[in-house]
């Protein structure tokens, strides 16, 4: 009897391409009677060792993802570095296998559109890992907006204080444009997707400024021929090293910005701003949403067990008011990846890979986050020149509107998801 014959009939057979820092998320899918990781591909011996540690001694190990087709898969997680997402995702979509792509979907608009086109042509299921849509704090903010707590949304602001930016993004491949386009995309795709989600629209025009303000002057680089092979961020991260100029062993090539600011105009008239700094002493996101009847914002983001509070102001007073009209404290599980958002993300993907249907995440929204970030990066490197965001091919857009609407839209919430055509708003 084959291994497949021994497994429960309903159990999904899953693969993982790229067993690196995000691989523990895929381990959440290993659930007896529901799904199993049975196949992995990673050319690095450390990745292959981690595959056995995370998924068991019986998992099939390959050095090339093409060989995973022999393992009779139902779905795959593509968890490679960003610049390597496209080819394996295209390969498995063409084979009719459901694909989970870690965010960002890709590092160019052309690659995003190629992936959406492949899912459209093959009718294969494509899912993108924008886990913040499952973060309790942001879901509560979205619910408050949908319930009319601040009236109609007119502006969304996001400040992202990336306190560990030097360790997380300037000691490895993230520091190079060739691998990320820029950190406004690699790190910012998360936040831009949330801005779009809270605002109910997509960016169509941007202006931006940015700089390599701190890490570019640091002379403590690792020589290219002496760079340690197989190391990952947890191997070198030390939160006690401060200020940022004290960091050592930075990537030999650093050509991405560590400070970025963008302004955006959305297709529904909402205005948005996004600021990202990689050398602050604190690490969290602050979202402010302003409507025509009030505003709300979060203090703390509830990630990794940190406390979070959403404050709502909708009565007029003079001066700053710390006593908000409504204050909603939130708690997230301290033992859950990203405040439990990763678990919810994986559960949704397993359901989607099995039966399809609405999802909280959206391939269209993932593409639009990348497109906005690419446009903003182009603008900031052209000294703030306004840049338009290209729109997706109409037939591809219609396909996802008809076959993969988001769950929030399917529930009939008051403020429609951006997948709703303009004429239906």
From TrEMBL:
> Cross-referenced PANTHER family, in alphabetical order?
CONSERVED EXPRESSED OXIDOREDUCTASE (EUROFUNG), OXIDOREDUCTASE
Protein's name in the database: Gfo/Idh/MocA family oxidoreductase
Database matches in Gene3D superfamilies:
Dihydrodipicolinate Reductase, domain 2, NAD(P)-binding Rossmann-like Domain
What Pfam family does this protein match (any one)? GFO_IDH_MocA_C3
Residue ranges of every copy of the Gfo/Idh/MocA-like oxidoreductase N-terminal domain listed in the record: 13-130
Q: Which domain of life is it from?
A: Bacteria
SUPFAM superfamilies annotated for this entry? Glyceraldehyde-3-phosphate dehydrogenase-like, C-terminal domain (SSF55347), NAD(P)-binding Rossmann-fold domains (SSF51735)
Annotated GFO/IDH/MocA-like oxidoreductase domain residues? 139-297
């Amino acid at each position: 009897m084959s291994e497949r014959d021994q497994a429960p009939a309903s159990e999904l057979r899953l693969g993982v391409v790229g067993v690196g820092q995000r691989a523990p998320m895929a381990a959440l899918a290993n659930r007896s009677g529901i799904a199993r990781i049975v196949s992995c591909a990673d050319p690095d011996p450390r990745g292959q060792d981690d595959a056995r540690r995370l998924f068991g001694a019986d998992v099939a190990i390959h050095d090339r993802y093409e060989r995973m087709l022999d393992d009779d898969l139902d779905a795959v997680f593509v968890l490679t570095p960003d610049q390597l997402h496209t080819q394996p995702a295209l390969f498995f979509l063409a084979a009719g296998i459901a694909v989970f792509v870690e965010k960002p979907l890709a590092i160019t608009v052309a690659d995003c559109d190629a992936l959406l086109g492949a899912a459209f042509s093959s009718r294969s299921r494509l899912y993108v890992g924008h886990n913040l849509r499952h973060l309790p704090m942001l879901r509560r903010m979205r619910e408050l907006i949908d319930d009319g707590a601040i009236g109609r949304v007119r502006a969304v602001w996001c400040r992202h204080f990336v306190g560990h930016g030097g360790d997380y993004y300037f000691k490895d491949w993230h520091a190079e444009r060739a691998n990320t386009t820029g950190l406004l995309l690699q790190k910012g795709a998360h936040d831009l997707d949330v801005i779009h989600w809270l605002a109910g629209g997509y960016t169509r025009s941007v202006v931006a400024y940015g700089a390599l303000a701190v890490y570019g002057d640091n002379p403590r680089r690792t020589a290219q021929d002496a760079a340690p092979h197989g190391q990952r961020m947890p191997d070198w991260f030390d939160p006690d090293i401060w200020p940022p100029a004290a960091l050592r062993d930075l990537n030999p090539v650093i050509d991405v910005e560590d400070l970025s600011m963008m302004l955006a105009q959305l297709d529904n008239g909402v205005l948005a701003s996004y600021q990202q700094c990689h050398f602050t002493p604190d690490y969290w996101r602050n979202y402010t949403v302003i409507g025509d009847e009030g505003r709300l914002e979060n203090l703390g983001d509830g990630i990794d067990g940190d406390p979070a509070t959403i404050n709502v102001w909708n009565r007029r007073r003079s001066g700053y008011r710390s006593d908000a009209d409504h204050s909603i404290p939130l708690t997230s599980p301290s033992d859950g990846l990203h405040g439990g958002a990763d678990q919810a993300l994986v559960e949704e993907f397993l359901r989607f890979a099995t039966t399809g249907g609405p999802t909280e995440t959206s391939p269209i929204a993932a593409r639009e986050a990348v497109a906005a970030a690419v446009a903003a990066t182009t603008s900031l490197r052209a000294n703030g020149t306004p840049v338009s965001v290209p729109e997706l091919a109409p037939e591809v857009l219609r396909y996802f509107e008809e076959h993969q609407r988001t769950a929030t839209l399917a529930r009939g919430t008051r403020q429609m998801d951006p997948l709703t055509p303009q004429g239906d708003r």
